[in-house]
Specification:
The chain has about 230 residues and is α/β, with parallel strands linked by helices. Helix content is about 35%, strand content about 15%. It has one domain: Alpha/Beta hydrolase fold, catalytic domain (Rossmann fold, 3-Layer(aba) Sandwich). It is built from seven helices and six strands, in the order H-E-H-E-H-E-H-E-H-H-E-E-H. Strand 1, helix 2 and strand 2 form a beta-alpha-beta unit.
């Protein structure tokens, strides 16, 4: 082997070693935002059992799914204050910077109050309203209590909630409604200026949380399918 060959040998060996080195492992995907589910009037957290199970099947860790229950007769403003505390606890325990809120019916109102008036827009990435009476519903005249009064068209609560920007902050807002929903009258009450408003198939009011098609659209809105463990 001549002197010129020896001179280049270290560089050749170094290049061969680099080629033989194992590739660096790809970084683990970031976990999805925690999801806080907010049910509607005269309901509880079990209303989300079917949807939460679908999220788990699509890779969401069980500890990122929170089916919260609250007293539905109280003012939506009171519920919003309680929701604020729930979100803070979820962020602290998960280490996440933001949550996603998935709401049904009256749950849309307390969560919107939280976003608009209690600083929630800085802690929420995506917000979902399934059949939410965002501009009031005439059927609320048939139930009593503070929360029902607040759901009636023209209520002071709704007037303040809908004044100015209906979708404040950087939150990604989306609503789903159906012309077959006999609870929300008129059906146009659900849609919000500045939101992605989707007309669902012919669904009754309580069917939104269990419908497979609505679930897929909600999942994609809040961030797409999470990676399955081990994938």
């Amino acid at each position: 082997m001549n002197t010129q060959t020896l001179r280049f040998l270290p560089a050749v060996l170094s290049a061969l070693a680099a080629c033989a080195a194992p590739a660096a492992a790809a970084p683990a995907p970031a976990p999805p935002d925690p999801v806080v589910f907010v049910h509607g009037w005269n309901s509880d957290g079990t209303a989300w059992n079917t949807m939460a199970a679908r999220f788990r099947s699509d890779g969401w860790p069980a500890d990122r799914l929170h089916q919260w229950t609250y007293p539905t007769a109280q003012s939506n403003a009171t519920t919003a204050e309680q929701l604020a505390a729930v979100v803070d606890r979820v962020l602290a325990s998960s280490g996440a910077s933001r949550v996603d809120l998935v709401t049904h019916s009256m749950g849309s109102l307390s969560s919107r109050h939280y976003l608009k008036n209690l600083g929630g827009d800085a802690k929420v990435d995506a917000w979902v309203s399934l059949a939410g009476p965002n501009h009031g519903t005439g059927t609320a005249r048939w139930c009593g209590g503070t929360s029902c009064v607040e759901m009636r068209p023209g209520s002071a609560f709704l007037g303040a909630l809908n004044a100015g920007d209906e979708t404040p902050g950087p939150v990604r807002y989306a609503t789903w409604w159906s012309s077959c929903d006999m609870i929300n009258q008129p059906a146009g009450t659900v849609a919000l200026d500045g939101a992605v408003n989707t007309r669902a198939p012919c669904l009754q009011h309580t069917a939104f949380t269990d419908d497979a098609g609505v679930y897929r659209e909600v999942r994609d809105h809040i961030g797409g399918a999470a990676p399955r463990a081990g994938s």
